[in-house]
Each structure stands twice: as structure tokens, then as C-alpha cells.
Amino acid sequence: MARKNKRRSRRSKTSGDHDSIQPVVTKGMEGGKYQPLSDHEIEQIHQTTLDVLENIGMANPLPQLKEVALEQGCNFTDQGRLCFP
């Protein structure tokens, strides 16, 4: 019986302290503001990606993709790569 009384007294001591507890996570930066790359850098990445797809191409394309891409003007190299003009 003494154990239950000790637990109750500990609970009652700590239960009233909730107002003084500080939040673990505090406010940080406002959402949508973090931009690790500039617009110019994003455009460079995009242009380089298009260049790679045009000049190096894609290896081992799925047969369905290859068929549709060839119909749309892509070409298939001797090395077995699908290139996008």
C-alpha cells in the first residue's frame, strides 16, 4: 500500500509541471524558403540532362519504351542505346 502512495505523490508532483516544460522542437525556417540551388544552376542541370539523353542515351530500355520512342523520332545506336533528339 505504501508503494501506491509513493507513486501517487510522485505523479502529483510532476503532473502540475507541464506548463513549465519547453517544447522539444522549436520553430525553424518558414517552409518553402530553402533553395540549395539557384534558378541558373537548375537550368544548367536540366540542359546537361537533355544533352546526356541526346548524345549518350539510355541503355537497356524496356521494349515498350523503345517501340514508342522510336515511333516518336528517337534513334537506337549500334551500342544498343536509345537516344532522344
TrEMBL record:
Question: What are the start and end residues of every segment in region (Disordered)?
Answer: 1-32
Where are the bilayer-spanning segments? none
Compositionally biased residues, Basic residues: 1-13
GO function term, MF aspect, one: methyltransferase activity
This protein's UniProt keywords = Methyltransferase, Transferase
Give the family, as the similarity comment puts it. Belongs to the trimethylamine methyltransferase family.
Protein name, as recorded: Methyltransferase
Q: Which organism is it from?
A: marine metagenome
